[in-house]
Amino acid sequence: MNILILGSGGREHAFAWKIAQSPHCDELYVAPGNAGTAQVATNLPFSYNDFEATAKAIVELKIKLVIVGPEEPLVNGIVDFLKARPELSRVKIVGPDRLGAQLEGSKDFSKNFMLKYGIPTASSRTFTSETLAEGITFLESHALPIVLKADGLAAGKGVIIAENIATAKAAMQDMLVDAKFGDAGNKVVVEQFLKGIELSVFVLTDGINYKILPEAKDYKRIGEKDTGPNTGGMGAVSPVVFADENFLRKVENKIVKPTLSGLQAEGIRYVGFIFIGLMNVKGEPYVIEYNARMGDPETEVVLPRIQSDFVTLLLAAADQKLAESDLLISPQTAVTTVLVSGGYPEAYEKGKKIAELERIEDVLVFHAGTAANGNGEVLSNGGRVLTLTALANSLEGAVNKSQKAAATVQFEGKYYRKDIGLDLIRYND
């Protein structure tokens, strides 16, 4: 069958790399894609937020399966749009509709959902510009540190962990008064800081049945030892050494099952991925956030560990037959290191020539923000440029291979964290 992936980042390149291996895939398209997806698929010249162009391409290219990578089109209702078109009635789509995507699109919705269905999470309050004074009073009486989250989508940057009241007040002012995150900050969720260690669990569901994919830990802060501002993600590791069978069983029983039964109770038929951001607090799982899609760069360590035919799993999810599919997972460890442009996550330059890619061996190179210039050269075209994923029989081996590749690739202003996975090696020891 002909398959279309919507998106342009490292996650979508990983999807394309995995899907292209399937005997079920005849022609593979990515919109708009990047220089990496062009190596395994045909890039289409329109935005993943262009719903009309997407519908037109599905018809013209005889697409049978659509995978929506990023959160923005999901929250904007692309699934609802496509399903409403009579000519697209037979197209299978992996991704939730607008109602389901609220799990990510509104932090306030997701917190109320967790409270309603008894899903463990941090205590919280939501404030708007109309209740700013009340919010300031709440901050002044709350224990520190404290977490402030923009309600809507903020490209992974709408979370502030305030160590003091002055920072907390400034963050609330930035969001509610100065509109730092635009409409995404019309509401601010203020929540208790949970002390523990973070990880993410990924679920593929057909609305009733589910498969729990390999878990991962990502590294959000720009600086080593988790310092500096949040980014879209600087690296990831899978599996996670502190997530043993007992802990993951708790995740399944206390979080995954109640989440899916809650969606069903709300009348939401959720087809697609649920990213569950977790905090392990003394062996107990608490939900930090939901995402309505796979994470990036976590996808770049999760998919390489899946040994089952990925298209078979996606089709089973779309057809509500996931219970009939097997999920085989490699015991190897995957580590990815993200190369970013100088200045990221603030202002950065694009168009830097990327060199030494041909020297990378035994490491998967997933393009995140790249473009081809027509002369056979690959240029930087985003804040996050490349993710370099290594597989090995040990965490140390995977870390070393990924870091060696990161040191090898060259472009002006290149930056990467040199401590990805090191905390887990120490944890193991």
Kindly describe this structure.
With 429 residues, the protein is of the alpha+beta class. β16 and β17 form a beta hairpin. The protein has a five-stranded parallel beta sheet with strand order 3-2-1-4-5, with helices on both faces. The protein folds into three domains: 2-84, Rossmann fold (3-Layer(aba) Sandwich); 124-192, ATP-grasp fold, A domain (Dna Ligase, domain 1, 2-Layer Sandwich), CATH 3.30.1490.20; 197-428, D-amino Acid Aminotransferase, Chain A, domain 1 (2-Layer Sandwich). It contains 13 helices and 22 strands. 29% of the residues lie in helices and 26% in strands. The chain has helices at 10-19, 51-60, 71-75, 78-83, 98-105, 107-116, 132-141, 165-176, 245-265, 299-302, 310-318, 395-408, 422-428, and strands at residues 2-7, 28-32, 42-43, 63-68, 92-94, 124-128, 146-150, 159-162, 187-192, 197-205, 210-212, 217-218, 221-223, 227-230, 235-238, 272-281, 284-291, 333-340, 364-367, 370-372, 378-380, 384-392. The radius of gyration is 21 Å and the shape is globular.
